[in-house]
Amino acid sequence: MCSGVNNGLCEARMALGSYDSGSGAMSHAYIQYPPFRCDIPGALGVTYDDANKLLLVPTLGEIYSWSVSSDTLPSDPVVVKISQGPVLGVRFSLDCKILAILRSNTEIEFINREDCNSFKQSCKSSSERILGFFWTDCPDCDVVIVTTSGLELNSLCLGKGKLKLVEKKKQSVSWFVYTHESRLVLLASGTQCKTLSGYQFSAGGIVRLPKFDANFTKSENHRTFVLSSENVFIATMYGRLYCLQTDPLAKMLHIHRFYRDAVISQGSLPTYASNVSVSVVDNVLLVHQIDSKVVLLYDILANTKVPISAPLPLLLRQYKPANSPEKPGADESSLYGEGWVFVNPDVILDHTHGLLWKIQLDLEAVAASSSDVSSLLAFLQRRKCEAAKAKQLSCSILRSIIMERRSLSQVSSALDVLTSAFGHVKRSSSKGTPIGRMSSMPLILTPGMQPAAFATALAISNAAELSYGSLRASSARAFINGEQEIREPEQESSSIRFSETENQAASPHVSPQEMLDNVFAVIDEGMAVENSFLVAVMVQYLRSARAEQLTIPPGLYVLLVRLLARDKCYARIQHIVADQVVEPSKALALELLDIGAQCSQLEEIGTDMLRQVHAHKDYLERLLHKGRLLEGLRYIRQNKVESPPCVRFLEAAAAKDNFVLLASVLRFCCDFVSTFEHTAEFEKFYSILKRDSSK
Amino acid sequence: MQLCVFDSRRGQQEGHELDKVLFFYPLDCPLPSQLSLVGLSEGLITFSRIFSPDSPCEFMEAERHGHIFYECEPDIWMILVVEKDGDQVTRDGAYRSLLRELYGIFRLFYGKISSRLENNPVADVVRNCLYVFVPDYIGDMMAGKTLWLPTISDSLAEHATVRILSVEPDILLECQSLLGLLESWSGVPQQSMVLFHNYLISSTLLPADTMAMYTYAVLRMIPSVVSQSFAQGSKRSYTRHSVLNSVVSTFVTEPKRSVSSLHEQTVSQPLHHDAWWQDVDGFLSSFAWGADGPGGGAVIPSVWLQEGEKMTYLCVYQHRALTLLMFIPSAESVALLRKQIIDQADKIQVLEEKLTKQWGGSNAMHVPGYRYMHHDLSRRTIKASPPNKVATLAKESLAVLNKVRGELDKEKNRSDHTDKELCLRTKNNAWVSARARAGHELYVVLEKASDTLLVASDAIDKFNKRHCEGRLSSD
């Protein structure tokens, strides 16, 4: 049997070996080798404490815990000594001071790590069994125990060494699902376990959710299907809470969204397989088809109910085919092995090998395999974890569709996607301080997420929805934790060169300046498309950006005008400048003066624009150059601006051989410059004037 | 009134002087009078050229007549003779603008006179064109029996200019973007023009072409003058040829030109009344360019743009107050372009709605307290008080303004760069102000500001800041 497994693994390894080139392989989701390893001799199993992001391995007498949230994996686990006995479940309290161990289905042991005191809590009545428990940060209670007869809300009295029952919510429970991310517990009851009811234990208090029935297709042979906890997932995407329920017979995934006072069905997604599991990576829903070992990607905010891209296998990246054959752990590379458990939201535990994998998305691969540009860009604009990569991809996609000379309407709608994403963030970030914002849409629990960026996702969400509004107090903390947590993907991506400030690099949104630098200027330099098409594209962008009230950098207008001038469309430049379709700026004025060498009208317009933007110095220089001396002097007098030395005006006037003009300038100088009459210049030009006028 | 177009290079030999004349109005003017006008004009031009080779004679004032000279193309002159009405002499610049406008439209539809003459030295073609076109143009100025030539009341208006509307840049940008979408289908650069009511919204044409096309569109294409149904258009049973015949019968100057040869020339008649009608699909059609055989569809209209001197085909779409003109290089692409326009019809509709929302009605350009005209000489555009508001001004103020403008016209002709400011108090206690600088002119009449010069000047400065981007500030 052993050899059989090995053979199979060899094949798998060979197959994987071909994927070793990394991102070049076609796969949209991947797990990065090496995994997090916890090979402790005598381990009784592996569990994941999602509240503290701890990997826990109980052995006889000890519990090893690793924090798996930080970038560098700590080599040494934290060890807590416990008394011997069975361990059915382990969770640290949210401050990690208390360890709770489910010893049997009637008893939980609490161990204070500081003084090593412990006490045990048992069921009150003999008929009920403990199904599980979890810690909460809700103000009313500390630990919630789920039993077959309902929920027990307890607060911890450390001094007395016991739990104090706060409240009991009676209800028969067959099984339950809880994620700390959502603070939501779903309780299943009924003969088919299809009635689900939920509570949210948030920092704002306890919210009871209305009951709802899971829907699944009845089998043909009328065998009753019983819903199990493997069929139900709580998912948090874009700050919204969903219950995802698989329907193995219909091969569908039914989606329910939780609102504060309602649970509303959001339709179903096809899974194309019966045996599926679900992960959420960067707000993207991953449906694993366990049997066929492929992953379907869904974006809940996309308008369609079809996967983002074709199903492709999960990829094991940078796996080195074990060149140490003596190591039996080589078969750890087998994907979707028997020991695999998918833990909310993006973690895979391999019980067989004691491994923890973290699923990641390969945005490049998604981008490469999608043909619908607008929805692809919209998808990229919603990415948070690899924001810089998403931004870079967005720019390059845009560049390529322009260079491929796709139809202008296609390009235009792609641009609309980018500007509206950027505009949205800009508008929402201008409302109030970041702190204020955080409390208004709190608990963006997906770590490393920018609050501003997040607003986009929430834009569509209903006000009445059960967001994390109730989790206020905890949100800031959760956010801070989140910041420190899964940094891994983000840091990796920020090392990609993208000439941006740190703040902007963390968002996938493309500012007008970046559009100019990374898209338009690049295309212009490459001379990849004809000017007129690039002009048309830029006009589309300007329209889109101005509709979103974005600030356009002057460089964009300069480039537009330069392109038009290259095609000698001077009349059009004249129109768009006069109509203020392009906003006046000094840079643009100088560009117009430049073009003015070919078209005198534009020179005039450029000069006037210098005046409009109050570029006094350049404007006066222009007037001097053009010999419009009196106009220049009047401008100086009226606007009280610093002028070039008056000698230059006098020299220009003298050169014109027009003594009336010279007299005017001289008069101005006498009036405007104090003690000018006593200078050598005055004498000089006065004598010139006398000579000229007597001619 | 007399209007004459002649080519001073033609008919150099004695006895052939009549060959110079390309057009003469009135049509029934006896030949000797025609010759005497041409002779007088030519003499004046030759004489004045001695002193001013670049711009010879512009205006000749006689006891009862004024002669306005306009050299529309090198050696091709248009002479307008107008009767003087008492002491009030309308400035000659106003008449010259009229001639410029007339020539501009003519050239738009028939091309340059000189190049037509090169191709057809007998000058049949040019004469045909002029005899078809100019009477239509003059007919437009006729109200009953009187001819509406520019008067001093038109001092806050100008022929051969384009009226523009103050529109938010964002809407204009939207318009540009829409045009971009319409133009992008072929990859060939095209030209376009957008009108809203009788105002220009956008144009990619050269200013001269824009002016000509705009003036024509206002005469024949904008919603208020277009026939709204095809039924009406077809019922008219187009009578172009008969019109031509009647013209020709009155124009028999040289025996060698046979009437039959004229018949062979198909001359379009764009200024024919009711030349355009709107089809159900929103496109404007015209039989002015003839029909494809009896009962056939209308020939696609074409124009000569100055840019590249190429014949360009015209496709016109209208949605309520919005008129969209597209100029494309080949007639075959018209069908494709139409499809493109229909595809974007909803965007056109949105644009029209936005403009309508912003538009303040026919008095949109009215600024309370001011009667004004701001003229951008290089773009040939004006923003001005609506005519019904100008009509409230006293005759006296307008007469003064007319005079001021006349003076400024002279000043403009003398130097390249005008930088002038004038502010006059009229006998009826109104202020008439004119400012000209860097290709911009602003004329304002203030009849209520009966205060000091300072107050009036301040009021105009305020206007300048708000409506002319501060271009014409007082110093």
From TrEMBL, chain B:
A Pfam match: Intu_longin_1
Gene Ontology annotations of biological process type: vesicle-mediated transport
InterPro entries: Ccz1, CCZ1/INTU/HSP4_longin_1
Organism, scientific name: Selaginella moellendorffii
One Gene Ontology cellular component annotation held by this UniProt entry: Mon1-Ccz1 complex
Residue span, CCZ1/INTU/HSP4 first Longin domain: 4-111
Protein family membership: Belongs to the CCZ1 family.
Name of protein: CCZ1/INTU/HSP4 first Longin domain-containing protein
